[in-house]
């Protein structure tokens, strides 16, 4: 691989400008690819009567995919404010896409009755 400094020392300034423009275009293309990168994956595990994690931090308007598993019985994973929910049977990985809204605190919860602690099975997404 040629060393860059001697290359520039020998190259005419027009060629050097073309090289710099091409390098800048490549960098810009990489930034565009990064902007459209796959959504962040967030794993959430549900068991009676706990979600782990039960606090999740998202950036405003961030697109994510929750990968949800359940340990002992079919659970529901619901984020009413984001308009998404899923049944989560044990032994499967359920993928649920969601997009955060503006900054704020958003509750999520189990919406399938799973036992005597079901009513307290919830968590919080902090968008900010
Ligand atoms: Cu439940």
TrEMBL record:
Localisation per UniProt entry: Periplasm
Any GO CC annotation of this UniProt entry: membrane
Start and end residues of each Cytochrome oxidase subunit II copper A binding domain: 37-128
Annotated Pfam families: Cupredoxin_1
Entry GO MF terms: copper ion binding; cytochrome-c oxidase activity
Domain of life according to the entry: Bacteria
InterPro entries cross-referenced by the UniProt entry: CcO_II-like_C, Cupredoxin, EfeO_Cupredoxin, NosZ/Cyto_c_oxidase_sub2
Keywords, alphabetical: Copper, Metal-binding, Signal
Endpoints of the signal sequence: 1-37
Coarse class of the protein's main subcellular location: periplasm
Gene3D superfamilies recorded: Cupredoxins - blue copper proteins (2.60.40.420)
UniProt name for this protein: Cytochrome c oxidase subunit 2
Organism expressing this protein natively: Paraburkholderia lycopersici
